Amino acid sequence: MSAQEFTATPHQGFSVFPLAAFSDNYIWCIQPAHSSSIWVVDPGDADVVLATLQQKQLQLAGILLTHHHRDHTGGVAKLQQSHPREVPVYGPQNPLISGVNQPLTQSAECQLACDDAPPLTARVYPVPGHTLDHLAYVIDDALFCGDTLFCAGCGRLFEGTPEQLYQSLQRLAALPDTTRVYCAHEYTLANLKFALAVEPHNPSLQTFYRQAQQLRLQQRPTLPSSIGLERAINPFLHCEDERLQTVLSEHWQCTPKDAVTRLKLLRSWKDNF
Ligand SMILES: [Zn+2]
């Protein structure tokens, strides 16, 4: 199996490149500068990671997991079995996930070590909503947010409450505008179609929709996004905006007075869009 090659995004001291997995997942690879090691985020498919390690002559330094869904964790056991020494696996402390040897339950910092480069520091943010165990990782100005925040959208509410998802999205949106957003799925075009139904007159949204269409025509990822872009185009980050109340009132024939109720109604609308 050969992995499709995508461009790496440079950061201070490391770069990030995606591996495509399943129909629309991305497994993000974090490679420290001048290093032949990578950390991988949410390796749902081991084979695509193993193929890349072989093709690029890279070592697997460790694994970060955001939440328990199989399309994010399914490759962990095979990756561990393929390596003679224990691979560090940071992830939620959750019996539904096997293979986590560095369990995380709350805000923390972890050191992502490599043999041939200084360690990278990842800040851990609990972001419940899509699932209760969901974590996000921030390394300098790179955010790995799994299925919590998507480009122009957010994850479905499988386990958490609208209040939890609202707080989690607010926390991520408070990161600097320049923060690069590495989401775990290529859902951008579908999300943009919904966002345009909600905010048809948003010029940033119209512009980015054209850019995203071009990228997908070329079979290129629309990611990473940025917090600044998301704050401009993502209706799930606009729940404080009174204008959202008008469009939600028209759709649902009710008047949501607070931001959490607006998020709940917006998410329900998207679930059936
Ligand atoms: Zn998920």
* CATH architectural grouping: 4-Layer Sandwich
Provide the structure class: alpha/beta
Q: Helical element count?
A: 9
Give the tally of β-strands: 15
Residue-averaged pLDDT: 95
The helix fraction, in percent, is 25-40%
From the 3D structure, determine the CATH topology. Metallo-beta-lactamase, Chain A
- Helix and strand string, N-terminal first? EEEEHEHHEEEEEEEEHEHHEHHH
- The tally of structural domains comes to 1
The CATH first-level class comes to Alpha Beta
Strand order of the largest sheet: 1-2-3-4-5-6-7
**What summary fits the major beta sheet?**
7 strands, mixed
Q: Unreliable segments (pLDDT under 50, ≥5 consecutive)?
A: none
CATH superfamily: Ribonuclease Z/Hydroxyacylglutathione hydrolase-like
Question: What hetero molecules are bound to the protein chains?
Answer: zinc ion
Assembly level: single chain
Our Rg estimate from Cα atoms comes to 19 Å
Choose one word for the global shape: globular
Strand content: 25-35%
Distance between the termini: 35 Å
Descriptive notes:
The chain is globular. It has one domain: Ribonuclease Z/Hydroxyacylglutathione hydrolase-like (Metallo-beta-lactamase, Chain A, 4-Layer Sandwich). It is α/β, with parallel strands linked by helices and about 270 residues long. The strands form 3 sheets. A 7-stranded mixed beta sheet has the order 1-2-3-4-5-6-7, with helices on one face. The protein has a 6-stranded mixed beta sheet with strand order 8-9-10-11-14-15. It has a two-stranded antiparallel sheet with strand order 12-13. The chain is built from 9 helices and 15 strands. Strand 3 and strand 4 form a beta hairpin. The site of zinc ion has 4 residues, from loops. Zinc ion (ZN) binds near residues 67, 69, 130 and 147.
